[in-house]
Amino acid sequence: METPLMDLSSHSPFFTPKNHSLYHFYPSKITIPTLCCPNNPTTSLRRFCADTTPPEDIHAAASDSAPERTQNRRRIVRLAWEKLVRWSRSWRFKARTDVLERTNKVAVLGGGSFGTAMAAHIAGRKPQLEVNMLLRDPQVCQSINDTHYNCKYFPTHKLPVNVIATTDAKAALLGADFCFHAVPVQFSSSFLESIADHVDPHVPFISLSKGLELNTLRMMSQIIPQALSNPRQPFIALSGPSFASEIMNKLPTAMVVASKDKKLANAAQQLLASSYLRISTSSDVTGVEIAGALKNVLAIAAGIVEGMNLGNNSMAALVAQGCSEIRWLATKMGAKPTTITGLSGTGDIMLTCFVNLSRNRTVGVRLGSGENLDDILSSMNQVAEGVSTAGAVIALAQKYNVKMPVLTAVARIIDNELTPQKAVLELMGLPQVEEV
After folding, report:
1. CA–CA gap between residue 1 and residue 341 (Å, rounded)
2. Among 67-81, 84-98, 252-266, which stretch is predicted with the lowest mean pLDDT?
3. Is 242 exposed, middle or buried (0-12, 13-18, 19+ CB in 10 A)?
4. Is 349 in contact with 318 (CB distance < 8 Å)?
5. CB within 8 A of 175, min separation 6: which ones?
6. Start and end of every Glycerol-3-phosphate dehydrogenase NAD-dependent C-terminal domain (predicted)?
């Protein structure tokens, strides 16, 4: 972070017409350059001089002893931190809303790991809040209601007592102020059509599902309103680096809520934000959804590299290339490049590609180790969305005329058109081109 530079008069040895535009003149400000080279006397001097040092005493300050310079530096850092804390408190005060106070009931569609984690998180925000989980498994439903444990996904994490499970769509949705959608993408359309009669046309849907519908290439922002036959159904996408188990353990992280309606995004932010969950807002729904979908495919590729023991160099090169491919496609679809480098892009990609808790990465590791895809999927109790989404990558690449060699290779491996070994040889044999 860079604070305004100190006032340097025209007779200062550091003032020249050539670099005059680099300086901003604010009296009584502290100098903290963004970049500092210890071997550069100009940078060091600017860094360690406080606002109390007049220009004519700059040379004298340069001869200060090392302990004095260290003391000055620490004082500058402390003051900068205190200023940040004051700004943060002021911002929180201004941003207060009564969204949480006005929310009495939340519905969560789906009882998988992430749906359960978000239900627990929301329930913990307000003890009086009723959180209804709509499930299809009567056994899991009974487990949550009788013992407050999800026996299938979180058998050791006790849920708040205000989390209620039901298999009755009408009971779950009636009177809900917000609805969290946590059903896998490939099953979402048929599921939503089956409960459409019970959905309030004004209730905001917060989508936790990441992926693309295989045959139609639709994102959740398209699937939800079309399945509910309501093009005006309020929609929010939630994404970012967030494993369900760590949310259950209340470990700190940050996520993004994206909506074309700024007020709606702000409302979701206030509903979700807590001491261990930071929530940023965005209007770039396309960027958030595309990054969230394709990072699962890239995670399979990263897992394949790990399973084949190709080393750290290969891993870094592959993930960097995959990030570029996601950016190329997303921007062609109208997304902002900054979204792809943010929490829902790079943040989620790093988590999914490099951590063993990732379902998609696990699929890739087992593929790279030589296992059969059908055997891998049949042994998993959760859906790896990247397997289905990979099939949509080639169609999207063709539709938007974008070359995506890494993600396309994953799709071909899943379709048994390439072995992981052959895919590596083909990727390494591509033309040497300029980086874009």
Report:
1. 18
2. 84-98
3. buried
4. no
5. 104, 105
6. 284-424
Rounded Cα–Cα distance for residues 221 and 357 (Å): 27
For residue 167, give the nearest of 187, 143, 193 by alpha carbon. Answer: 143
Of 83, 250, 295, 403, catalytic: 295
Q: How many residues does the chain have?
A: 436
Q: Give the pTM.
A: 0.80
% helix, strand, coil for the chain, step of 5: 55, 10, 40
DSSP label of 17? G
Structure tokens at 387: 């397997």
295 assigned to active site: yes
Q: What single letter denotes the amino acid at residue 276?
A: Y
* Calpha distance 252→274 (Å, rounded): 9
User: Token pair of 132, please?
Assistant: 């209804």
Provide CB contacts within 8 A for 63, sequence distance 6+: none
Could you tell me the pLDDT band of residue 93, with boundaries at 50, 70 and 90?
Answer: low
User: What are 184-209's pLDDT values in tens digits?
Assistant: 999 999 999 999 999 999 999 999 99
CATH numbers and ranges of domains, the chain: 99-283 (3.40.50.720), 288-429 (1.10.1040.10)
CA proximity to 226, closest of 214, 238, 218: 218
